[in-house]
Amino acid sequence: MAIKIAVIGTGYVGISTCVGLSDFGNIVVGFDIDDNKIKRLSSGDPVIYENGMEYYLKKNLETGRLSFTSDFKVALKDAEVVFLAVGTPEREDGSADLSQIKSALDAIAEIIDRPLVIVTKSTVPAGTNRWINDYMSSKVDENLFEVVSNPEFLREGKAIHDFFHPDRVVIGTKDGKENPIMRDIYRSLYLIETPFIWCNWETAELIKYASNAFLATKITFINQMANLAEEMGADIHKIAKAMGMDGRISSKFLHPGPGYGGSCFPKDTKALAKTGRKVGVVMSLIEEVISSNETQKERMIEKAKRLLENNISDKKVAVLGLAFKAETDDIRESPAITIVKGFLKEGVKISAHDPKAVENFKKLFPYVEYYDNAYDACKNANLVIICTEWNDYRNLDLDEISRNVKEKKILDLRNVLDPESAIKKGFVYEGVGRKGVNL
Ligand SMILES: NC(=O)c1ccc[n+]([C@@H]2O[C@H](COP(=O)([O-])OP(=O)(O)OC[C@H]3O[C@@H](n4cnc5c(N)ncnc54)[C@H](O)[C@@H]3O)[C@@H](O)[C@H]2O)c1
Ligand SMILES: O=c1ccn([C@@H]2O[C@H](COP(=O)(O)OP(=O)(O)O[C@H]3O[C@H](CO)[C@@H](O)[C@H](O)[C@H]3O)[C@@H](O)[C@H]2O)c(=O)[nH]1
């Protein structure tokens, strides 16, 4: 039987939850405090750039299983379950800001009049679901609600695929036991034998942070190895490939680059470190990962300056790629931000291109020159920096770049180009963890 669900917050995770759960056959109403977003979603515009999202959004709107509203009462009217998918951004001290969660709970408490399962999909620090339970108990009869933790593991750019094919579904309950309504909501995944992990709230919360922190650590490890490989004349790609052939290590998340970014790894590693400090367990490894990632971004600016022979005033740098990774228009914590900010501060002229993220980047940096075409962005540049691994950049025509640039210098922060062909065409080429040829 279709379960009636309200989803609070329609950012990346909220939209994916709305679309995914309605596609599983549930009746879903999405709510957001941003009216404009609700209008766009209702008309079938997914707001974010995400492959496949528009198709599934329109498909489920058409069946009538999915709708959106900016009226909280309408969203909650028939709901048996409410998913909290609001943001949990970083506070200045690195801890998670739970104010969006709190306002959603206050709104629920005001109108709740029959039993409701409150599911936390947002990433929240260990102890938060227990706090949600206590907070709601202080406001309404405790028989009126049940709290469930159901962290999300989707990746931006692959959100639809990840929602339909998760490696696992983690569900934390008060007593750590199975919850039938949650099993029903995800019945389509049960049918394809997706593993379900039933556990208590704190375990579910920590699984989410442990997973992100582990992946961030893996990236940081390979970035440090890349820096060493550069100095020793080795090729990090061959090192990572050989390491990855050991099944215990796996080849995933061993791509070196300018440091991890995005809306999750930076804030979640910091929040985990903060939780550790709060309870007297210093997460020294994670703290080192956080600071090493910052150093990696700064190191990229130093590499660029070296290529410009440290004489940077009056120079022009072309930045190709502004999104924090390919296949998304999200620029949150993008390494391109650190690089552009660092150069603008020193008076360097920046021209930029990105297939999808220009509009978002413009809001932060209105004075950068933006181009619809990567070759135009390279005109008269003294250095071209590739910041995002878009496929468009893998196939760049280096002859055309040669004709456009002032100096033939490329800093390839994602190692998307073949160093040998770049060098053969007369470019000074530098990647991350592989300097030149004969590696
Ligand atoms: N982005 C990801 O890939 C991803 C993946 C897994 C988990 N997460 C976690 O999921 C949560 C949401 O992330 P996101 O990237 O979708 O966030 P987001 O910032 O893109 O979206 C949050 C949405 O919540 C809305 N909102 C804020 N307060 C509200 C309120 N009181 N009532 C209703 N709506 C409200 C905002 O208008 C916004 O649309 C975070 O905790 C994040 O860590 C994100
Ligand atoms: O080998 C790699 C893999 C990734 N990255 C960088 O790491 C960051 C994060 O990448 P990715 O994990 O693909 O993107 P997100 O969409 O941020 O997804 C992560 O964060 C989400 C939010 O918590 C989780 O749900 C996902 O499981 C987790 O992968 C990006 O800057 C990537 O460029 C690397 O530098 N090297």
Automatic annotation (TrEMBL):
Pfam short name (any one) = UDPG_MGDP_dh
**Per the record, what are the reactions this protein catalyses?**
UDP-alpha-D-glucose + 2 NAD(+) + H2O = UDP-alpha-D-glucuronate + 2 NADH + 3 H(+)
Assigned keywords, A-Z: NAD, Oxidoreductase
Known EC number:
1.1.1.22
User: Mind listing the GO molecular function terms for this protein?
Assistant: oxidoreductase activity
PANTHER family xrefs: UDP-GLUCOSE 6-DEHYDROGENASE TUAD
- Species, as recorded: Rarispira pelagica
Q: Which family does it belong to?
A: Belongs to the UDP-glucose/GDP-mannose dehydrogenase family.
InterPro entries, alphabetized: 6-PGluconate_DH-like_C_sf, NAD(P)-bd_dom_sf, UDP-Glc/GDP-Man, UDP-Glc/GDP-Man_DH_C, UDP-Glc/GDP-Man_DH_C_sf, UDP-Glc/GDP-Man_DH_dimer, UDP-Glc/GDP-Man_DH_N, UDPglc_DH_bac
User: What protein does this entry describe?
Assistant: UDP-glucose 6-dehydrogenase
